[in-house]
Design a protein that fits this description.
Elements lengths: L8 H11 L4 H8 L3 H8 L7 H11 L4 H4 L4 H6 L3 H10 L15 H16 L3 H21 L2 H25 L2 H18 L2 H18 L2 H20 L3 H20 L3 H18 L18 H14 L3 H8 L10 H17 L3 H14 L1 H6 L1 H13 L5 H10 L4
Length: about 400
């Protein structure tokens, strides 16, 4: 179905439903969702939640991005992402061949740039990631194919982190084909990097991709397999293992939410909380914890506790839990941005429209590119516009900035 960049999610769902010659009752039954809720979403009177969009996408056999309106190609051009994204795609053509024409710097210089890319990922700075990643990939592939021993493994481990950073960009921009390609390249380098925790990270990212396809049961199976990779380290209370398992449990909780399985979601969240309590601190990755340790800790669990209730439709409870989130002053912008985006969704659903707009501005302040391209932002802004008798200038300005429907 051709994308209409102006239409909202509900409008797209209605259009595709008609294309498939289904009534609202038939689609609601097929997707196992509330008929009245589907009607309200199609009419624009209720924002489309992640679980609803995933259920409809699965029922109709299409990617979630069919309804979210991604990849927002007009905005890519406006923000000058088109050229760097094309360069990124070209860099992924080679992953296993040495090329004489590729000039390679010293590994210390390359490593410094990899750290900059990782910092850009935490800041959701998509433009910086896609501008730096292509040349780094070329260099690291060259090293990985010409070096031996520890140097080869180190190059592959660095490649995994660059691919993962680029994956975050591709996923958040709705570029599903690029997501699949980056997962494939990650898989190749993980196999040559000699690090089980990077293998678990690849599984984590692979499970993440199932949110877009609606194959949530596949995502849960992937998480289960990944947990076996780190189980020995968890029993030994190794920090990398606790962090990896904690993140996997949180991802499993969100997958369960999307399937409407509240008991499993809360059970996985409880497992993650126990792991965070065992750590007793915020692990930021890098430093004394090692360069390949995933960040994890009590704040991440607290953020997900609110997100779980929101995804399950318990918006009042989600907002109560959101008040308990007290992140450190230097907490990760990408997680904070996501937290404020989710909080805005819950506030809109409980009629707190002024608070919702305030939360969106907080998301924009900490992670502007995430706040612009996250599909939930556009859905929430459209809902705020629909709910307002007279939309304030601040809301109109935000809608214009992020490309939401007015």
């Amino acid at each position: 179905m051709p994308q209409n960049p102006v239409a909202g999610t509900g409008t797209r769902i209605a259009a595709y439903r008609r294309l498939c010659r289904l009534t609202q009752t038939q689609l609601a039954t097929k997707a196992n969702i509330s008929y009245s809720l589907l009607v309200k979403v199609e009419q624009g009177r209720r924002p489309a939640s992640g679980p609803l969009v995933a259920a409809v996408a699965r029922a109709l056999g299409v990617p979630v991005t069919t309804f979210t309106g991604q990849p927002y190609a007009t905005d890519h051009a406006h923000d000058r992402l088109d050229g760097p994204l094309a360069d990124l795609r070209a860099s992924l053509d080679n992953w296993d061949l040495p090329l004489d024409e590729v000039a390679v710097r010293g590994m210390s210089e390359i490593g410094a740039d990899v750290r900059l890319v990782l910092e850009a990922r935490r800041a959701s700075n998509y433009a910086k990631i896609v501008s730096m990643a292509p040349s780094l990939i070329d260099e690291l592939v060259q090293v990985s194919q010409t070096a031996t021993g520890e140097a080869e493994e180190r190059a592959n481990r660095m490649l995994v982190h660059v691919y993962r950073s680029a994956y975050d960009v591709a996923y958040n921009l709705g570029l599903s084909d690029l997501v699949s390609l980056l997962l494939s390249r990650m898989d190749y380098s993980v196999g040559r990097g000699n690090d089980p925790y990077l293998m678990a990270l690849h599984h984590y990212m692979r499970a993440y991709a199932t949110f877009s396809t609606g194959r949530l049961e596949v995502g849960q199976a992937i998480i289960s397999r990944a947990l076996t990779i780190v189980e020995d380290g968890v029993r030994a209370a190794e920090v990398p293992a606790l962090c990896s398992a904690g993140n996997l449990r949180l991802r499993a909780a969100m997958l369960a939410c999307r399937r409407g399985d509240a008991d499993t979601a809360r059970g996985e969240l409880s497992e993650a909380r126990q792991l965070a309590n065992q750590l007793g601190r915020e692990v930021t990755g890098g430093g004394n914890d090692g360069p390949h340790v995933q960040s994890f800790g009590p704040t991440n669990v607290a953020i997900h506790a609110s997100a779980v209730e929101m995804e399950l439709g318990n918006h009042g409870r989600a907002l109560q839990l959101a008040k308990e989130v007290r992140p450190p002053a230097d907490y990760f912008p990408d997680r904070l941005g996501h937290f404020w985006i989710d909080t805005a969704r819950a506030q809109l659903s409980t009629g707190k429209t002024d608070a919702a707009l305030s939360s969106l501005f907080k998301a924009r302040a900490v992670a502007p590119q995430q706040a612009k391209y996250h599909p939930s932002v556009r859905e929430t802004v459209s809902g705020l516009v629909h709910a307002a008798r007279r939309a304030p200038d601040t809301l109109i300005g935000y809608a214009s900035w992020c490309g939401a429907e007015l």
